[in-house]
Design a protein that fits this description.
Number of strands: 19
Radius of gyration: 33 Å
Oligomer: single chain
Number of helices: 23
Strand order of the largest sheet: 8-9-10-11-12-19-18
Largest sheet: 7 strands, mixed
Structural class: alpha/beta
Number of domains: 4
Distance between the termini: 73 Å
Strand content: 5-15%
Shape: elongated
Length: about 600
């Protein structure tokens, strides 16, 4: 029988999720061409065409050629029902007509344009609106919203007028709601709102996946380098217990502001003026208590221990930023270091990591604690006032050491390197396109700096004058460099080619006219961003990789020496048993985490 054959054909056609997605798209958005559907659902044109032909043949959709463009064929959703239950299966097999369970709008009569009284047919009424491209969901909501306005024997003209006002009001109410939401958002000084107003092209780059702006919300500091000298001066402390208590309190204050990574740099130096007058048991007791209290705060703490004399100390003494007797306390610095290392050997901490800062080659018996960081400050490329914490490197290579403390990271923009490589195909064009993206990204960073400066004096960190954001870091990070070079060099990656690009990129950034911003280049360490770029690119082109590497240093063949090109962050992670301190220093590596 005809009815029973049609139902069987319809059920056969709805044999995969893609066809259901096509029907859902037409329902939600109205008429679409094959090209529109293939793009929006990420389908091959031939697949979309085949499925639409099947859906049209079985009555789920209909199509017509556009008058303006005879080559363009538009597909419309058909109002269909497949009401399958035991009773209806029996009726189908008998060839009986199935009555659809419809809304209350089917239970009244309407006077047609020809003056005839007919039972209202929702499918017939909706058809011209569907054909006109109005989404089916909008039609359904409009009809449901006017049920209480409809009376028996309403004229079709009146019904149309009420309905069209309803869907127009729905559109207006949506537009009104969006305007209200936009106004509400605009009151909050987020970077998104600021950029939308001042530099919308930057947002376009973010949306299309060339870059990823990490912080589009309210300005915030993602990490922080404490000034251990300033804490003593501000609070006028004179003994070790009071000093350690003030440091703990300051860490808590910043933790309450949402700053989850904090550095206590050159810690063994700045406690030396207090430990020099104490016996070792008292020092051990106070430091053990301090470390336990610090760990309990729940934020990541990076405790910097200087091995050898920091180069910044002599320079800072010349301008009177540090206590004048600090150089005379070096023997106590060594004692403090041994005490701290022995405490960490004995106590397991969850949130505190040691950062060994090597100013000279270490002694052979230096104790390395697992899950610690080693910063090699011996190479000439290292600045004297650098602070390392987790994946970041802060330095004020154009200011004194004191400008590298009480600051952190404000904004980072990640750059999609494989995408640039895919559209340029050779090293020279890649470099040129990369520089263009960098230049635009720096424009975005300028607006971020502008926003921070405009609001920090009014309310950002108003309660803690200790913070100064004007010297905080604004960085660019390169994502998927390994994959980018695989594309450019067709798998024959030459480390010299990588070095040339990195050196050129660093030189280009150093020569940009942004003296008022501390601008840095970093090797991306965030898997989330690498995956985001990969997922975005995989929708528009076939990729030969299963992922984008989050870091150039995911590749074990990459030299330590490449770290010198990333003045805002670089790290290599190695098991302690595989770490060779001599090779690390000889190859002028910068930063390693030993696990």
């Amino acid at each position: 029988m005809v009815q029973n054959t049609k139902v069987i054909e319809q059920l056969k056609v709805l044999d995969n999720e893609v066809k259901l997605r096509i029907l859902a798209l037409l329902t939600e958005t109205g008429a679409k061409s094959i090209t529109d559907i293939s793009k929006q659902l990420n389908l091959k044109f031939s697949t979309a065409h085949k499925y639409l032909e099947q859906l049209e043949r079985t009555g789920f959709v209909r199509s017509k050629q556009e008058h303006e463009n005879r080559l363009k064929r538009m597909f419309y959703i058909q109002d269909f029902y497949i009401n399958i239950n035991p009773s209806n299966i029996s009726k189908i097999l008998k060839g009986d007509k199935i009555e659809h369970e419809d809304s209350e709008l089917s239970d009244f009569h309407i006077i047609t344009d020809h003056g005839k009284l007919e039972r209202f047919d929702k499918i017939k009424f909706a058809k011209p609106y569907l054909d006109g491209g109005i989404p089916k969901n909008t039609i359904e909501i409009g009809l449901n919203s006017i049920q209480n306005q409809i009376r028996e024997r309403t004229s079709l003209i009146e019904f149309r007028a009420i309905f069209e006002i309803a869907i127009q009001n729905r559109v207006n109410s949506i537009n009104s709601a969006l305007i209200n939401i936009e106004k509400s958002r605009a009151k909050i000084q987020t970077f998104f709102n600021y950029l939308k107003l001042r530099y919308p092209y930057g947002l376009d780059m973010h949306i299309n996946g060339d870059i990823f702006i990490e912080n589009l919300g309210k300005p915030k500091v993602s990490n922080f380098s404490h000034d251990l000298n300033a804490i003593a001066l501000f609070n006028n402390v004179s003994n070790l217990p009071d000093y350690l208590m003030e440091v703990t309190n300051m860490v808590k204050k910043l933790a309450n502001l949402g700053i989850k990574e904090q550095a206590l740099d050159s810690f063994n130096y700045f406690i030396s003026k207090y430990t020099s007058i104490l016996d070792e048991r008292k020092i051990v007791s106070e430091l053990e208590k301090f470390i336990k209290n610090l760990d309990a705060i729940g934020v990541e703490i990076f405790l910097g221990l200087d091995m050898g004399t920091p180069r910044f100390i002599q320079k800072e003494l010349e301008v009177n930023f540090l206590p004048p007797n600090l150089m005379n306390l070096e023997k106590y610095v060594g004692i403090n270091t041994d005490i701290i290392l022995n405490i960490f050997k004995k106590i397991k901490t969850n949130n505190i990591s040691l950062v060994y800062k090597l100013w000279t080659e270490p002694k052979n018996d230096l104790l390395f604690i697992p899950k610690s960081y080693i910063a090699n400050l011996i190479p000439k490329w290292q600045t004297s006032n650098v602070v390392y914490l987790k994946n970041s490197r802060l330095d004020a290579n154009w200011k004194y050491w004191m400008r590298t403390v009480r600051v952190g990271d404000i904004q980072n923009i990640a750059i999609n390197a494989p995408r640039i490589a895919a559209r340029t195909k050779n090293l020279q064009l890649f470099k040129e396109e990369l520089f263009k993206i960098i230049k635009e990204s720096v424009e975005v960073l300028k607006y971020s700096y502008e926003l921070v400066n405009s609001i920090q004096s009014r309310y950002l960190f108003k309660k803690i004058k200790y913070i100064h954001l004007d010297d905080s870091l604004y960085s660019l990070s390169l994502v998927g460099l390994k994959e980018a070079f695989d594309i450019l060099l067709e798998g024959n990656v030459n480390l010299k080619d990588i070095e040339i690009i990195l050196q050129a990129t660093r030189d280009y950034m150093d020569n940009l006219d942004v003296d008022y911003i501390r601008l840095g280049l970093r090797d991306c360490q965030k898997e989330t961003i690498a995956n985001y770029f990969y997922d975005k690119d995989s929708k528009v082109r076939r990729l030969n990789f299963s992922r984008y590497s989050k870091s150039l240093f995911d590749n074990n063949n990459v030299s330590y020496s490449f770290q010198k090109y990333f003045n805002a962050g670089h790290i290599i992670k190695l098991p302690l048993k595989e770490f060779n301190i001599d090779n690390f220093i000889k190859s002028e590596g910068g930063f390693v985490k030993i696990e």
